[in-house]
Write a structure and sequence with these properties.
This protein is about 40% helix and about 0% strand. The chain contains twelve helices and two strands. A two-stranded antiparallel ribbon has the order 1-2. Helix 4 packs across helix 7, helix 9 crosses helix 12 and helix 11 packs across helix 12. The protein is globular, with a radius of gyration of 22 Å. The chain starts with a helix and ends in a 29-residue tail after the last helix. The N terminus is likely disordered.
Length: about 325
């Protein structure tokens, strides 16, 4: 029996090695499935992600702008904030965002934890303060009990809130796209047209910026290398963070994962379709004018980057107490 067990283990190990050898050597790598090490923390973060009581109005949640039923974005040119304010910039997808070099278009947040605190206190977004958000959660007995269970203390603070939200967001990955299946050796996962689009995508130089598991998100690049990008959007890109003029119009390269779901495109949302986005990127970033057929082929490839969307049971939020501030989105 012992020898048989050793033989089985050796066979499994060899099978694992064989599988690993089938992963193609490409600039884009497969997305790994999420590994949850603290499910209780993730569950708490999920509740907070969907809870509008973290906003001044009691109406806006993280999911309002990063809707997990819509590719982790809101499909608006710029998002809607407190009192129906028009946001200044397009809402990037939260899917696979844990793989990014930094958060927000200008990279002003180092990681998901830091990013999670930003919208809560932004007067144009959720329009609360961290202290008021913490105070609200402290009036909800269910949260007090859950924070104690997860953290070992009933005390609620913004550090714990953002840690939990980030833990949930880290699970929002989208593996197993057709392109991932092809990367892992399935020759039938992509059509000839999709493969032609990927070949053109590589040959054109798109992979210089759109690489790695997320097909982007790992660098900042200037928008408009061969032609200036014309926009009325006031966003300065990295210059708003660094104060350096040379960083003006430098934005974080967006992930192309699930890109067919996250329209409209660019920081200002001015490209309504993938076709428009590909045409503009070719002309502005590569100095290349794609034909209609080339655009169509590249778009066909881009659609193969849509992976399995996160699936989970929607959270049942703990009820408010008599002391919890009442929602009032009209003031």
């Amino acid at each position: 029996m012992k020898l048989k067990a050793i033989a089985i283990a050796s066979a499994l190990a060899m099978a694992g090695t064989a599988w690993a050898a089938t992963v193609r050597d490409e600039p884009i790598q497969p997305i790994p499935a999420a590994k949850v090490t603290n499910p209780a923390l993730v569950e708490l973060g999920k509740k907070l992600y969907f809870d509008p009581r973290l906003s001044r109005s009691g109406f806006i949640s993280c999911n309002s702008c990063h809707n997990l039923s819509m590719g982790g974005s809101d499909n608006l040119k710029t998002s809607i904030g407190d009192k129906w304010q028009q946001g200044p910039i397009n809402s990037p997808t939260v899917l696979n965002s844990s793989m990014a070099v930094a958060q927000f278009w200008d990279g002003r947040a180092a990681d998901l934890k830091e990013q999670a605190g930003g919208p809560i206190a932004n007067p144009g977004e959720m329009a609360f303060t961290h202290d008021l958000a913490v105070g609200t959660l402290r009036t909800i007995p269910g949260y007090v009990a859950e924070f104690k269970s997860v953290f070992g203390s009933a005390d609620i603070n913004i550090d714990k809130i953002t840690q939990a939200i980030a833990a949930f967001e880290e699970t929002l990955v989208t593996p197993n796209s057709p392109f991932d299946q092809w990367l892992k050796g399935d020759d039938k996962a992509l059509t000839d047209r999709e493969l032609a689009g990927y070949g053109l995508f590589k040959e054109s130089g798109c992979v210089a910026c759109h690489n790695g598991p997320a097909a982007g998100g790992t660098s900042f690049q200037k928008m408009g290398l061969f032609e200036p990008y014309k926009t009325n959007n006031p966003a300065e890109g990295r210059a708003g963070v660094t104060g350096k003029d040379e960083d003006r119009m430098n934005f974080k390269v967006p992930t192309l994962r699930n890109v067919e779901l996250t329209y409209p495109y660019f920081h200002d949302g001015e490209a309504a379709t993938l076709e428009q986005a590909v045409e503009l990127m070719g002309r502005l970033q590569l100095g290349r004018k794609y034909s209609e057929q080339e655009i169509s082929d590249i778009v066909a490839f881009l659609k193969t980057l849509t992976g399995d969307q996160p699936t989970f049971v929607m959270p049942l939020l703990p009820p408010s107490s008599n002391e919890t501030p009442k929602p009032n989105p009209w003031q």
